[in-house]
Design brief:
The structure holds two protein chains of two kinds. Chain A is mainly α. Helices cover about 80% and strands about 0% of the residues of chain A. Chain A contains four helices and no strands. Chain A has helices at about 1-30, 35-60, 65-95, 110-114. In chain A, helix 1 packs antiparallel against helix 2 and helix 2 (about 35-60) packs antiparallel against helix 3. The longest helix of chain A has about 30 residues, at about 65-95. Chain A is elongated and about 60 Å long. In chain A, about 45% of the residues are buried. By secondary structure, chain B is mainly α. Chain B has a domain at about 1-95. In chain B, about 80% of the residues lie in helices and about 0% in strands. Classes of the chains: A mainly alpha, B mainly alpha. Chains A and B meet through helix 1, helix 2 and helix 3 of A and helix 1, helix 2 and helix 3 of B. Chain A: GO terms for molecular function: sodium:proton antiporter activity.
């Protein structure tokens, strides 16, 4: 009974991770400009790979493996926003445009303010 | 095969198919993406999907050592994205207005050197030209 419960949790994590990866890929193709595509790639994509790593840790069933999987999960969750912010800042500073439906651009006169 | 193994096996197969579809969609964005930052975002996403593949292989084969490989791949992907961001910052915006992969490739050829090489045919250096004037 216990192993069936563990298998169900693992299967849920696997399918959830794959679903998040699929949502991220669809968002990457459907969203209008670079800055909105970054939302899909850096949030849903990171959660997808992180859930799959957690599934490995739960499936193995011993503490060291689970701790390593948890460390990997936190590593991805910490590094994805850093890289996404760096890339968005570089692209905005260089002058890649926002899409036409954008409402406001908070960083329009960022260079003049600092 | 017990019930638990059957559940895991079906879930892994379905997840492999779903990850394949999302991988192909992301590759399509890498090919199509009109600007360089679009391609960099898609490459970052590809690293995440490959980490998911490695995790699924770890579940299928039972080798938990694959977790370390996934972590190091994530580190390499993070460093690559940071390096690409620095490159975009230092390169400036010189994309063609209608994003076309071939156009950006041909635009990166250094223009002045090609022109000066075409202007001066071989055998007519400054000394030869001076002699010809006399």
């Amino acid at each position: 009974m216990m192993d069936i419960l563990l298998a169900a949790i693992t299967a849920l994590l696997i399918l959830g991770g794959a679903g998040f990866a699929l949502v991220a890929a669809i968002g990457l193709n459907r969203l209008p400009d670079l800055y909105t595509r970054m939302h899909a790639a850096s949030k849903a994509g990171t959660v997808g790979s992180g859930l799959l790593l957690l599934a490995v840790g739960v499936h193995a069933g011993d503490l060291p493996t689970f701790a390593r999987a948890l460390a990997g999960f936190f590593f991805f969750v910490l590094t994805a926003p850093i890289s996404a912010h760096l890339l968005a800042m570089a692209a905005h500073k260089v002058g890649y445009p926002l899409c036409a439906e954008s409402v406001r651009d908070e960083m329009k006169d960022y260079d003049k303010r600092i | 095969m017990t019930t638990a193994e059957t559940i895991i096996s079906y879930a892994v197969w379905l997840a492999l198919v779903v990850l394949c579809v999302s991988f192909l969609l992301t590759v399509w964005r890498v090919i199509k993406g009109p600007t360089l930052p679009d391609r960099v975002v898609a490459l970052d996403m590809l690293t995440g999907i490959v980490i998911g593949f490695i995790a699924l292989i770890a579940i299928r084969t039972g080798f938990t050592l694959y977790i370390d490989i996934a972590i190091s791949l994530g580190l390499v992907g993070f460093l690559a994205t940071v390096a690409f961001a620095r490159f975009i910052l230092s390169r400036g915006n010189r994309e063609a207005p209608k994003g076309d992969m071939m156009k950006t490739f041909t635009a990166s050829v250094p223009e002045p050197r090609r022109k000066s090489a075409a202007r001066r045919p071989s055998g007519t250096g400054p000394a030869v030209r001076r002699k010809a004037k006399k």
